[in-house]
Design goal:
It comes from Hydrogenophilus thermoluteolus (Pseudomonas hydrogenothermophila). Keywords: ATP-binding, Nucleotide-binding, Transport. It holds the Pfam family ABC_tran. Helix content is 37%, strand content 26%. The protein is of the alpha/beta class. The strands form 2 sheets. Strands 6-7-8-3-9-10 form a 6-stranded mixed β-sheet, sandwiched between helices. It is globular, with a radius of gyration of 17 Å. The two termini are 33 Å apart. The model has no long low-confidence stretch (mean pLDDT 96). The protein binds adenosine-5'-diphosphate (2 copies). One adenosine-5'-diphosphate binds next to strand 2 and helix 1.
């Protein structure tokens, strides 16, 4: 069954209709690139999926559980759906290691030592074990974004949402983040990636969604999207 299901999802900001009935299902292990012009609702759609914001109408199911106001559900959703933002959103007053260990300690009540051991393994995986005891500001943007990915992985989510993860980076740092994302894509985690990186969409994604003015205009394969006239 789908790990994420959105059925006729609507979102309005005042009079502005940002999502106009979006329906899409995402299956375990699928990597979806979400493309489309600025303002077309891509980021709004991602924020609906992990309940950073509420949808006004329609239904969203995460692993079969409908998103609603039940706080028990919200906690489950936050565990299953990780998110990586354009601007990293790291905690500036915590070391890199503590940034990655924090959510498992707070939310899953993992003991500090165990959480930090696992955080270290995740930092190794994104190539940053040597920077574990630094503060985010001492790292480059590309390194900070890799920390943010490790932090999202620390909760063992089934789904990772990426909202323009390379858009705030200097060009020379884009590849180190895309490389980590490419490796992740091969691990079987479900990924939804809002991006302007057409290379990633073409070479890594299984599927392309193209948003326009709050609707999905195309839902197809990268091959069809990039090669059909
Ligand atoms: P995209 O990610 O495709 O660039 P967004 O989902 O960020 O688009 O935004 C879709 C539209 O909704 C934009 O016109 C944006 O200005 C508007 N919008 C997004 N968030 C808000 C908000 N919190 N309040 C009002 N308008 C918003
Ligand atoms: P993006 O780069 O994803 O398109 P935006 O610049 O559209 O981001 O939005 C950045 C933040 O500002 C988001 O949290 C969004 O909800 C909010 N936002 C966007 N447009 C508006 C708006 N017209 N009024 C209020 N908040 C907005």
């Amino acid at each position: 069954h789908p790990i994420i299901e959105g059925i006729d999802v609507h979102k309005r900001y005042g009079a502005f209709h940002a999502l106009k009935g979006v329906t899409a299902r995402f299956y375990p292990g699928e990597v979806t690139a979400i493309l489309g012009p600025s303002g077309s609702g891509k980021s709004t759609f991602l924020r609906m999926l992990n309940r950073l914001e509420k949808h006004d109408a329609g239904q969203i199911f995460i692993d079969g559980i409908e998103l609603n106001d039940d706080p028990k559900h919200l906690a489950a959703i936050r565990r299953e759906v990780g998110m990586v933002f354009q601007n990293f959103n790291l905690f500036t007053h915590l070391t890199v290691l503590r940034n990655v260990a924090l959510a498992p300690m707070r939310i899953r009540k993992v003991a500090r030592k165990a959480a930090e051991t696992r955080a270290m393994a995740l930092l190794e995986r994104v190539g940053l074990a040597d920077h574990a005891h630094k503060y985010p500001i001492q790292l480059s943007g590309g390194q900070q974004q890799r920390v943010a990915i490790a932090r999202a992985l620390a909760m063992d989510p089934k789904v990772l949402l990426f909202d323009e993860p390379t858009s705030a980076l200097d060009p020379e740092m884009v590849n180190e983040v895309l490389t980590v994302m490419r490796e992740l894509a091969h691990t079987g985690i479900t990924m939804l990636v809002v991006t302007h990186e057409m290379g990633f969409a073409r070479e890594v994604a299984d599927r392309v969604l193209f948003f326009d003015q709050g609707s999905i205009l195309e839902d197809t394969t990268p091959d069809r999207f990039f090669n059909d006239p």
